[in-house]
Amino acid sequence: MEFRPHDRAVYIPESGTLVCADLHVGRDAASDVELRLGEHEDLTSRFAGLLELYEPSTTIVAGDLLHSFDRIPTGAADTVRTLSGLAADAGCRMVVTPGNHDTMLEELWEGAITSEYRPDDQGVVVTHGHVPPAADAEWYVVGHDHPTIEIEGLRRPCYLYGPDQYEGAGLLMLPSFSRLPAGVRVNGMSAAAFQSPLVTDVGSLRPIVYDDESGETHTFPPLDEFRRHL
What CATH number belongs to 4-229? Predict the structure, then answer.
């Protein structure tokens, strides 16, 4: 599967699809801090940049568009409306595959909702990844676990990519699009430590890190091999 990682999202050129996961809109307002963390501006400006860069025909939010389970925090509705408006202005259809946090999604999101989305006829399925998928696929694109990797003492959000995972299908796991979650450190994690059931052979997954400063993408060896150098 060809894909282009960029700024915690991924673009699939064959289908003209942009995928981002775990926006956790409303986490800023739910945080126990006196000063807001700039969630609205960060999410909307980066999303607009991705739309301008790739001009996708479809954007898929692969789960956890929202953060709170039982309420819609102040400002969350405005952020969701802005994201939807940016996609509409760019002529881009926006679809949400609900995640485990999206219990109030239908109260806020008026666009398309589907548990699993197949962007083309090439065997790719996009879903949040918190439950076993119903659809068969050659590749699953998911979020949910918020992977990060520590290299030389620095933790960076990372993608995890590799074949032969859930029922033999390949897997691409995205980092959280929101910068607020700390993420899980995958350096020494076993497959059983992941919350997503789609990770079955973590040692065969390659970490991929997009460097915001240089704009370069670094693809590392599979974790079984790479761990010896960490």
Answer: 3.60.21
